[in-house]
Each structure stands twice: as C-alpha cells, then as structure tokens.
Amino acid sequence: MAEEIVLALTAGEPAGIGPELCLELAAAQRDVGVVVIASQPMLAARAGLLGLDVKLHSWRPGSAPRKGVGELSVLHVEGCISHQAGELDTANSRYVLDTLTVAAKGCLEGDFDGMVTAPVHKGVINEAGIEFSGHTEFLQELCGVERVVMMLATEELRVALVTTHLPLKDVSAAITPERLTQVATILNADLKTFFGIAQPKILVAGLNPHAGEGGHLGREEIDVIEPTLETLRGQGIQLVGPLPADTLFTPHWLDDADAALAMYHDQGLPVLKFQGFGRAVNITLGLPIVRTSVDHGTALDLAGTGKADAGSLHTAIRVGEQMARSLKSAKKRET
C-alpha cells in the first residue's frame, strides 16, 4: 500500500474563487489527504452562498484528513474579517499571509508533506501596507533559502524562470552569472529530486531577439549567458542554448527536452499558458518543502457564482502528491 500523503491547501484571497475551489474538492472521493488552511466560518459562508452541502471537520496534526464525498478537513486560521465574495478588503491581508505561514511551517515541521496554494491578490495585500511580491518570494524568505525558482508545468511542457516579478527595464541587470548559475543548478537538481529525471536536458532561452544575433541585438548572451552555461556544462549539467525564444518553443527543440529556462516572466509563461491554461501548475523549486499552485488569479468576477473551473487546482494537488512521494523516496535513498 502506498504511503499516506497529506497536503496543506491554502484557500487564498477570501473575496476570490479560492474558497469555492477548495469546497469543490468535497464533490468527489479523494485519494490524497488534503487539509484546507482557512477561516472555517468563511468557508461555511461561501458554501452557504453556493448552496453546497459540505461538512467541515476541524483537523489536528497527526489525524487523518477526511476524504469522503461531502467532507472536508479544515485547519482554522483566525483573522478573516470580511467574507464577501468579489469584494476585496485590506483587513483580510494579514490573515491571508497567516494561512501561508501556517501551511509552510506545517510542512517544515512534518505535519504536511507539501502545500498547495489557491490564488492571492497581491494588490490588496500591498494596499494594506504589507510589502508582498508573490507566493514565491514570501516562501523563500519564510524558509530561509537564498534562491528559489518559479516553474510552471503542464503534462507536456515545463518552463522555469531566471527572473520572476521584475519590471522589464530591470531584467537585463538582474541576469548575472551568479543568478543564472543558482537557477540552473536548482532546476537541474529538483528535476532529479521531484520528477525522477536522471539526467535532465534543459533548453535555455537568450534574452534578446534572435539570442542577440551575434551581438548585433545585445551582448548579454555573449558576455553573461553563454560563458555561464559553458561553466555549468563542465559541471555535468545538460544545457542547450542560449536559443532564440521565438523558436525554442517548437517541437524540433522541445520533443526531447525536459524543461525550458526563460530569462523573464513574460518570455516563457505566455507560451505555456496558451498551451495549457487551466490545467497547468505553478511550482516553486529550491525550497526544502513541496509547493505547487494554480496557474490563475483570484477571478473576482467569478467569485460566488459557482462557475469557477477547478481543473488547475486538481492538477496542482496531483503534482504536489507526486512531488511529495518523490521527495520521500529521495530522502530514503540518502539514508
């Protein structure tokens, strides 16, 4: 019998679709244990709004999560002031971050095997006077690691990023040999640890059009990217590139590759989301814990309507379970 996996699921922004996506899990029997980290009264209010008959069970560490139809295990977090679907409230911002802290610390302490996150609203958190650039950076600081890597994945494609939430004008200066080395090393190692790929093949995009066209369209490829990739190849990491981003994402290159590494957010993610939006998963690499997330935002216009699609959440849970099992196996091999 497979070892039990327990995942923490943060419900995200209370005004968004996250709470109802969590409640939707109770519509069917589940194979993996899921504990929703949220305000229990908020979840009950959303269930009432949608006419969902869901029994919310309080969960304690060490107990088995409920998996039956119509049942959901909840680890209650205080501080959710407003339950109104579709209407943001800055007073909820601290509560939202507290759910992330509870989930991450639970993973670090061994209560959970991984965490899955529903979408938060960065704007309202910052409007509350709390500096917040995203889940990825928040968990990096909480876990005390120097570098993390954002990767989105579908069944057919994995795309990791050298830089994440930066203005485009700041990207070139941020692509340093040190950052590129750290990101490529983490990506290579975690493809092995979490996905069981013995020798990953990674395609690397150039920064400039046509990968700089021999220096005529920019020198970042010549001065930074190619020398760094050559050094990493000497360490045994299988890297191809820098390649022009407009042709990298074609079957000719992708068919025998395990991941693509893009230089900035909107270089790689539009391709992946066009290819698989609604069934993709956001993964944070470089953490000592498993973290996956949905590939979409809070969708305030859909909140409370019952029309939100839970496909990406199901994918995030499935991938989170697979990563947690791979991590357990890797740790066993080390011992």
UniProtKB/TrEMBL annotation:
Cofactor or coenzyme needed: Zn(2+); Mg(2+); Co(2+)
Sites where the protein binds substrate: 135-136, 273, 282, 291
Location, primary (coarse class): cytoplasm
Keyword Transmembrane helix: no
Enzyme nomenclature, EC number: 1.1.1.262
Keyword entries, A-Z: Cobalt, Cytoplasm, Magnesium, Metal-binding, NAD, NADP, Oxidoreductase, Pyridoxine biosynthesis, Zinc
Binding, a divalent metal cation: 165, 210, 265
Catalytic function, reaction form: 4-(phosphooxy)-L-threonine + NAD(+) = 3-amino-2-oxopropyl phosphate + CO2 + NADH
Pathway the protein contributes to: Cofactor biosynthesis; pyridoxine 5'-phosphate biosynthesis; pyridoxine 5'-phosphate from D-erythrose 4-phosphate: step 4/5
Cofactor: binding comment: Binds 1 divalent metal cation per subunit. Can use ions such as Zn(2+), Mg(2+) or Co(2+).
Gene Ontology MF annotations: 4-hydroxythreonine-4-phosphate dehydrogenase activity
Highest taxon above the source species: Bacteria
Cellular location(s): Cytoplasm
Subunit structure of this chain's protein: Homodimer.
NCBIfam families to which the protein is assigned, alphabetical: pdxA
Role noted for this protein: Catalyzes the NAD(P)-dependent oxidation of 4-(phosphooxy)-L-threonine (HTP) into 2-amino-3-oxo-4-(phosphooxy)butyric acid which spontaneously decarboxylates to form 3-amino-2-oxopropyl phosphate (AHAP).
Family according to the record: Belongs to the PdxA family.
PANTHER family per UniProt: 4-HYDROXYTHREONINE-4-PHOSPHATE DEHYDROGENASE
Miscellaneous comment in the UniProt entry for this protein: The active site is located at the dimer interface.
Record's protein name: 4-hydroxythreonine-4-phosphate dehydrogenase
Gene that specifies this protein: pdxA
